[in-house]
User: Fold this.
Amino acid sequence: MIANFVLAAAAAQDSATAAAPSTAASLSWLVIAVPLVSAAALLLAGRRADKWGHLVGVTAPSAAFGFGIWAFIDLLARPVADRVQDVDLAPWLTAGIGLDFGLRVDQLSLAFVLLVTFVGTLIHIYSIAYMAHDRDRRRFFAYLNFFVAAMLLLVLANSYLVLFVGWEGVGLASYLLIGFWNQRTDYAVAAKKAFVANRVGDVGMLIAMMIMFAQFGTLSFEGVFGAVAAAAAAGGHTGTLTLIGLALLLAACGKSAQFPLQSWLGDAMAGPTPVSALIHAATMVTAGVYLVVRSGPIFEHTPGARLAVLIVGAVTLLYGAVVGCAKDDMKKALAASTMSQIGYMMLAAGLGPVGGVFAIMHLLTHGFFKAGLFLGAGSVMHAMRDQVDMRRFGALDKFMKVTWLTFMMGWLAILGVPPFAGFFSKDKIIEQAFVAPDGQLWQGWVFGLVALFGAGVTAFYMSRLFFMVFYGQARWTDDQHPHESPALMTVPMIVLALGSVGLGLILTLVGFEDYLAPALVEGHHGEPVMNAYVIMAATLALVVVGAWIAWVRFGSAKAQVPVLPPAADGLVRAARADLYQDSLNDLLLVRPGQALVQVSAKTDEQVVDGAVRGLAWLFQGVGGLIARLQNGYVRSYAATMLAGVILLVAIILAGRI
Amino acid sequence: MSVSAYLILAAVLFTIGAVTVLVRRNSIVVFMGVELMLNAANLSFLAFSRLWGDFDGQLAAFFVMVVAAAEVVVGLAIIVSLFRTRRTVSVDDENLMRR
Assistant:
């Protein structure tokens, strides 16, 4: 207790100081435990649970959502100053580190809990129908539940170490679900690729934690942020803080598929579509943004690391947008779009606490409309015999009315058309990107224009996707008979579409900004280098232009979309190949890595094993020679004994003389 | 007579015994070689006993004789039972333990 008071005193100058937890907050571990127990039960029950496993699987996130609502109402009832609550559950790693296993219930973590459990529940419901014909549906639900539990642990953790447990858990769940159909080799390879790319990011996380522990002697948010604030006030540690910030950014890049660790996300689309919707669009890939926003008190004091976050976000948002323009695989185009949108969030998170609020807001709206878009894509695939090539779609609007309309809501939301959800979150980010920090005028212009341009490209590639799927001529193969999906699939799509329409407006009206800001460090609103209305008008104009180009080329009745991808210039070819990131990784990392492995394997075999084998060979040879003495002839034994005795006597006599 | 004559005789007897053990194949003859070596040792015990004028050497000689008698009993029993089962007393054929 005394230690807690000392820590609390150290953190007193930080804006977010933990208060004593309420009943709801101290029971928040149930949110994690319920899906975790359900996952374990489904896995242990085996085939016996095949008939009812999915029902248990749906109940778990729904129950967690119920708990989340309770904790949220409880939080709102508290005064603003007492809303950050740390719950110590159990002592953990008492030897040397003295770290407790605890949860932090505050505005930020509860926003995530509600997103993860609500969208998670909808996607679980959708999966009942989507995976109905899969013989491993129970295992699928077990993995999904496990993912929900790990993700909730990640966002509810009150220290970096507990966060890391959830961080690894979602990585494992992602691996298991990408490779869910691992009977196909390329799917299994995609899962492995995602896992390895995430491990690279994890190294960053580990390094950040090691530096924190070496410098501050603690890993809890309260302790670290307090120590950071104290160190910054004393005017030292800038280099250390920058190093921690960069390591955290590396971790975020791995998990959130940001440049240069983004190449796994496209391949991750090998997983079943509900997985893509939940893990690789709505929740897990946004964990990196969460990490950066949560670590705001660290980034606050290190402009260098913040600039790196901005650059990563800006590069990725353009990168994803360019790749998205050229992909013909519907899911991969959506994946590129996810990458790009998370780039927006990362950019916002790098803009400081005010941007962080908009990053989280865009994260929430994106969670709804992107999950909706993915579920729509899944519905289209369901209708078109698992076809994902958009060149084989077209004119589906009359056959799948619900999918078409819900997809349209998501499309309008991601475009940022008012009053759809994306307008309220993305427009704010673009406006915030134009704010020049600390008088660095060029930063405002560069990042602002990148964000603005990205919005136009986003409009183009999302409209291209939408028009290619639902408009133009029908380009189906002969065996495709499109039909609407069952209600279990359409209802979640409708709910998410409603969120895509209204969530942005609702969040703005209820004052999400004022709700979230107290959980972050204090920030001040800066003035953008251009008038905010000019920015808004320019954004909308670019969006309209992008969508119009897409309509002319892919949507209108006159537009001809070839069934096979036509020959194209260098940029399109590069974009089709993910801007050669895979080839580059292959050249720079994979091949040298494999060569190193081969050399060490050979060294192991020839040198290490060789030494052992040589020793064995030596003793075997000597043993063989000596074994010849043991020939079974008594007389030769006697001769040996005699010779030995004579030798002994000779030695003794020699000693006498 | 000096003691060296006894010792030389003992050495000659011991050598004859040792060579017998090493070169002969017949187990019984090998046994006789062993007895010869033991008695060569007895002879040197007695010679030294006479030289020093006490009974320690004679005592040792009695012990050797007793042990030799016991050894002969056990050894001959082994040889007889081996001959019964294998129809041979050659030491070169008695290599059962090595197989």
Remarks:
- Residues 17 and 34 of chain B are 6 Å apart (CA to CA).
